[in-house]
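Exercise: predict the fold of this chain.
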Amino acid sequence: MRPLWRCLVHVALVLAGVALATPAMAQQPIRIGSFLSTTGPASFLGDPEVKTLKLYVDKINAQGGVLGRKLELVVYDDGGDAAKANGFVKRLIESDKVDFIIGGTTTGTTMAVVPFVEAARLPFISLAGGIVVVEPPRHWVFKTPGTDRQSIERIFGEMKARGIAKVGLLSETSGLGQSSRQEAFKLAPRYGIALAADETYAQKDTDVTPQLTRIRNAPGVQAVLVVGLGQGPALATRNYDQLGVKLPLYHTHGVAARDFIELAGRAAEGVRIASPALIVTDDLPADDPQKPVLAAYRKDFRDAYGEEPATFGGYAYDALMIAVDAFKRAGGTDREKVRAAVESTRNHVGTAGVFNLSATDHMGLDLSSFRMIEVRGGEFRLSK
């Protein structure tokens, strides 16, 4: 009997240890890693992104977390520098041991880290606009903003409807700018548009008057399209106004923030932008499926920070909500299960649009996610 007694005691101790360990394991946080451009040329994109992630991680934790576990946010500022982004993502993977990554404010920083994320087999949702992020699809990489291709398609569609056939193109040399330029050249013939001028500028340029002068002087130009993000397009808009150019001026979704109007000043008046709907929430009809989501996000952001949110913050909101939903459907943080859950996201109404992802579409947004918007009276308004 004595050996049996010892065996029973051993089993009881093991079971007690399991019982004690299980609650402790259940309380381990779900770690969300992020690298964002909260300083540097893309800071007016990165700033609302980090504010949004912090706001909603706190809100989710106050409501009990996810699967009974708290979210823990680990954020680094890459300043828009691809080399820094690489270093921070390595740290997130190897030292911080995160369960999921949300970040990549720009296309350049995103594409720099893709090989590391793929090698680590870690789910990653980018906040960058370039189509190269998801085309071709990569097993572990997703994105929430609509693509530069869609933004340009929306603009070219409107130009065609307005009888505009010759366009001057001014592209930033950033990752998004280069990708957008390539898409513009691919798409223009489909819409009967000729790119009659093709100029570029760098993110750190302080004057683009020479490029705009050449565009203005190009024979037959009827409108100008600027593709870029952050402060550069606002500078181009001011220079455009200083030159007295009266042709229609278009921008893609890299400027969809109140900061653009503030930086461009009166020169922003009349500018036309292809953008998600967040910045024109009040103009949307009551039956628009996105309106409740947009209104709730805008209220939360205003209450927390006393300022208007930008579409870029909305991309972070969408990424976090898709990730949280994936954790729930996966029943934990198993990487492949979470990745598969993200990929199977259907009819998810977000700030950027209605998401329907698949194995061949790691963004899940169609062209309806972009609205044509113009600046009127110093405000973003739905285009008439």
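Check your answer against the key: The chain has a mean pLDDT of 93.
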